[in-house]
């Protein structure tokens, strides 16, 4: 049975060029769908794979002779392109320095982001892994401070009526049905957050998306893994950093946005979309003089 995503419910199919195949077996080993096997020196397609080819592309990408083509689930022969040479890839030190110097930036210069930079950020973000190919992540782009603000204020307006669900009375009523962590977070984070957002809007400010000149909402479909949109958003964050831009992830929108049908419709976010994260991007107003040493909640070896 094919694995469905919002983009396709079909399997991909494999075309083998037997003349150039030297039966090395690499494609057989990398296909975790058990879609291929060697019959002596002949590569064959398994008629009983686990799911049916879901178009991960591993077999065609690993083949040293270009003897496999994967077609379907958005892939075709042209999508298999030359690998950058090993020597031209970044080193750990470069990547670490980029990561270490990144800060969440919420103060931006009054300067737009050029389309060429947006294109470069997206070009990098789309290389990220996804739960099941083809990627089920959508990206809604808000280009320009005015559009970012328009969305922010409409979201805050839609949030206002939701505040009643977090009133002290409702929280006491719901206490027996809520996990301890959700109860504490609702009381100590959600309620003050809604208040801050309402106040900031009333004062003509934007404490939701901080009036960034660019915002990208990475969201998934109803099919995808909840982690799916977070990963391209992280890639986009690092790509933007490498271009000298400042970024901040905004996670406080998606948990509410999923219930806001009218807003989803206006911004063309699919009804079934559940999870997502915003990334705001702009030219940073301040330079950070220090990096910050961080620790994980728990680090354990077994
Ligand atoms: C999943 C996620 C959600 C976040 N949501 C918000 C948010 O809603 N608003 C905000 O101002 N910052 C948000 N942040 C930024 C964090 O607050 C920030 O990463 C943290 O304070 C650490 O600071 P640093 O990124 O400069 O190291 C979010 C970050 C992540 C990873
Ligand atoms: S594309 Fe992926 S699932 Fe399909 S045959 Fe190749 S390795 Fe297997
Ligand atoms: S990786 Fe290429 S050469 Fe090796 S068995 Fe598969 S198709 Fe043949």
Bound compounds:
flavin mononucleotide, iron/sulfur cluster
Q: Report the sheet-strand fraction.
A: 5-15%
Strand segment tally: 8
CATH superfamily of the largest domain: NADH Oxidase
Share in helix: 25-40%
Largest beta-sheet characterization: 4 strands, antiparallel
Task: State the end-to-end distance.
Answer: 37 Å
Anisotropy-based shape: globular
Report the C-alpha radius of gyration, rounded. 23 Å
Could you name the CATH class of the largest domain? Alpha Beta
Spans of at least 5 consecutive residues with low confidence: none
What is the arithmetic mean of pLDDT?
94
CATH fold type of the largest domain: NADH Oxidase
Strand order of the largest sheet: 5-6-8-7
How many individual domains? 2
Could you write a compact summary of the structure shown?
The chain has helices at 26-30, 58-62, 92-101, 115-125, 145-159, 168-174, 180-202, 230-242, 254-257, 261-266; strands at residues 13-16, 36-39, 42-45, 68-71, 138-143, 214-219, 246-250, 276-282. It is of the alpha+beta class and 302 residues long.
């Amino acid at each position: 049975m094919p694995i469905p995503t919002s983009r396709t419910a079909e399997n991909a199919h494999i075309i083998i060029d037997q003349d150039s195949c030297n039966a090395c077996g690499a494609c057989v080993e990398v296909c975790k769908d058990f879609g291929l096997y060697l019959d002596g020196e002949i590569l064959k397609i398994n008629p009983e794979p686990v799911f049916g080819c879901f178009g991960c592309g591993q077999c065609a990408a690993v083949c040293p002779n270009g003897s496999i083509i994967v077609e379907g689930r958005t892939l075709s022969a042209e999508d298999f392109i030359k690998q950058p040479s090993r020597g031209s890839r970044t080193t750990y030190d470069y990547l670490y320095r980029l990561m270490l110097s990144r800060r969440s930036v919420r103060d931006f210069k009054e300067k737009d982001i050029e389309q060429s930079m947006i294109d470069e950020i997206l070009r990098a973000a789309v290389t990220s892994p996804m739960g099941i190919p083809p990627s089920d992540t959508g990206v809604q782009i808000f280009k320009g401070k005015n559009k970012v603000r328009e969305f922010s204020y409409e979201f805050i307006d839609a949030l206002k009526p939701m505040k009643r669900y977090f009133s002290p009375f409702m929280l006491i009523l719901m206490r027996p049905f809520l996990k301890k962590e959700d109860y504490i977070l609702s009381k100590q984070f959600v309620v003050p957050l809604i208040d801050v957002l309402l106040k900031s809007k009333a004062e003509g400010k934007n404490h939701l998306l901080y009036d960034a000149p660019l915002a990208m909402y990475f969201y998934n479909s109803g099919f995808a893994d909840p982690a799916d949109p977070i990963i391209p958003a992280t890639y986009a964050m690092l790509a933007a950093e490498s271009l000298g831009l400042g970024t901040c992830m905004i996670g406080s929108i998606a948990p509410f946005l999923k219930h806001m049908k009218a807003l989803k419709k206006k911004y063309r976010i699919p009804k079934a979309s559940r999870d997502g994260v915003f990334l705001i991007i702009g030219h940073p107003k301040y330079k950070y003089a220090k990096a910050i040493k961080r620790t994980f909640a728990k680090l354990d070896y077994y």
